[in-house]
Structures are given as structure tokens and as C-alpha cells.
Design goal:
9 helices, single chain, 183 residues, Arc Repressor Mutant, subunit A, mainly alpha, disordered N terminus, 76% helix
Length: 183
């Protein structure tokens, strides 16, 4: 049923809600994700409530245009986000290729890791630096895998706190010219 602008906003809303399944199917075919389609339709419905009194044509036809625009906007936001992620990934890859930076950071973090409880320092060295699986590490030191997971979690947390305390802003913004003092 098409509703013209002379109809009250409640009737237009009823018409749009009554066509919800069709709207959802339309969006889902284009975004190929049910949850995302539901989110787009709901957001479009909420935004459209403000303009229900301005509709001068078929409410259903008008809403399909709103949905088409919402899909395009979503695609643009997703593309922009993917470009930003690609730029960050490229920056991180470039940083990995800078041995001076990596060595400086590793020396600083290594020095601080040495101040941790011995079992924490050992867990970090074996699991994070030597890539030993947690389960294998647990078997080698004679503890359960869950206990090893807790140990490495606490070790990382303690190291993070030491880095923040010793390095100050370098901990947040990266060690570019590490002049951190001793822990």
C-alpha cells in the first residue's frame, strides 16, 4: 500500500514497518550479511522517522531510495576504513624493516623484562620470543596449560606496566629515539 504525504506519520511508519521483510531482503542481497542488513534497515528507519511528514510520494519507494543511499554510505565508510587499515599495515611493515628501531625497542623491553619475577621473564621469553606454544611451555615447566596462560597474561601485564613507568610517552607513542633510563 502506498501512502502519500497527506497520511499521518503513524500510517507511514506502519507502512514501512509492514514492509520490513522486503526491505531487509533488499539490503541483505546487497551487503551479504544479515546482521549488517538489519543494522542498516533499523538505522534508516530511525533516521526516516524525522522526515515522515515530508514524503510527497510512495513511502515504500521513498524508503527504498533511503536504503540504497544507506548501502552506498556504508560501502564508502567500509572502503575508507579498509584504506586506513592498509595504510597502518604498510606503516607497521615498514617499521618491521627498520632494524635500528626494532633493536632499540627490543633492548629497552628486554632490559625491563629482566626485572620481572623470574618465572614471568621465562614465560615471556619462551612463549613470545621463541614462539613456544603455551601448552608445550606448560608441559616443559610442569604446570597446567591454563596456569601457563594465566602466567603469561600476568607477565605481559607486568611488563606493560614497567614499560609505561620507565618509558613514559614512548610507551604510548613508540620508541623512536629511546633514551629511557634504567627501570
Amino acid at each position: 500500500m502506498d501512502v502519500m504525504s497527506s497520511a499521518p506519520a503513524a500510517e507511514i511508519l506502519d507502512t514501512l514497518v509492514g514492509s520490513h521483510r522486503e526491505f531487509l531482503a533488499y539490503v541483505e542481497r546487497r551487503v551479504r550479511d544479515r546482521a549488517l542488513a538489519e543494522e542498516i534497515v533499523q538505522d534508516a528507519l530511525v533516521r526516516s522517522l524525522e522526515h515522515a511528514g515530508e514524503i510527497r510520494e510512495s513511502a515504500v519507494g521513498w524508503f527504498y531510495r533511503v536504503l540504497r543511499n544507506a548501502i552506498v554510505d556504508h560501502a564508502r565508510r567500509r572502503a575508507a576504513s579498509e584504506r586506513r587499515l592498509a595504510a597502518v599495515a604498510a606503516e607497521l611493515a615498514a617499521a618491521d624493516d627498520e632494524p635500528e628501531l626494532r633493536d632499540t625497542v627490543c633492548r629497552c623491553v628486554g632490559r625491563l623484562a629482566g626485572t620481572l619475577k623470574p618465572e614471568y621473564a621465562e614465560a615471556l621469553r619462551r612463549i613470545d620470543l621463541e614462539d613456544t606454544p603455551v601448552k608445550e611451555y606448560a608441559e616443559q615447566v610442569g604446570i597446567s596449560a591454563s596456569n601457563a596462560g594465566v602466567r603469561v597474561f600476568r607477565a605481559r601485564q607486568a611488563l606493560r606496566e614497567r614499560v609505561a613507568r620507565a618509558c613514559g610517552t614512548c610507551a604510548e607513542h613508540g620508541c623512536l629515539d629511546c633514551t629511557c633510563g634504567s627501570p
